[in-house]
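Reopening this ticket.

The earlier resolution said the output was attached, but the attachment link was broken on my side. Pasting everything inline this time so it's all in one place.
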Amino acid sequence: MTCNNTLLFVVTKGFQVKAGPPPSYRLDDFNARAPVIGKLNNVSKIAFNPCGELFAICCDDLYRGPMPSNACVDWFSVARRVSKGGWNKYKFILFDPCGVLYAATHDGQFFKGPAPCNENVCWLSCQATQVGTGGWNYFDVLFFDSKGILYAVSHDDRLLKRYPPTRADDNWYASSTTIGKGGWRRLSHFMSFSPDGDLWCVDSCNGNIYKGPAPDTADTNYIARAENLGWNYNIYPLLAFTTAKH
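Inline output:
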């Protein structure tokens, strides 16, 4: 059962933002019922911190602010720019459960640091710590569980997990645990844990969305244990989970 304050946040190809409870059965038409709550014009990456604050990259800059709340307003016009330049170099941005920002570059480096809050302070050179020197660009997706374990889908189609790296020479890939042996790259259009601990995946080919327990061994068949809760979710370039604030 998904927590009743869980929201699925999506960005359409036209940069409209929609949000609503995630689907609970296969014919639950999320696209029809989820309201448009704003715009994220020319957004390239999104991530929510544990407090539900949105971070988004646009035109090489990083912005942060509350959840969009006006369907007619471009969120970037009211959000705060907290870092100028250099953000298009990142393939992934993501937060751990403590609110630490992790970012992997397109050339394979991996960094972590506090979430930026001042556009005049360079995050990469002044605040971030390098925790990976290469290979991080070969993953299809990176995400954390609620305990701070880092998960990744590798270029050879495996689902991996391990505590996150803490130093640049930490070979995370070689020392991670394989908990899925095949079929994971296809499921990596969107892959994330919901706040209640279920693993959700979207099939990049047909858009099917699945919810199920995370595999615990390489031989576990995730699809066989998961629920199929709809299709066509690959129409959304960006998806994320967050929680509604009451």
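Reporter confirms the inline version is readable. The longest strand covers residues 6-11. The chain has one domain: 6-243.
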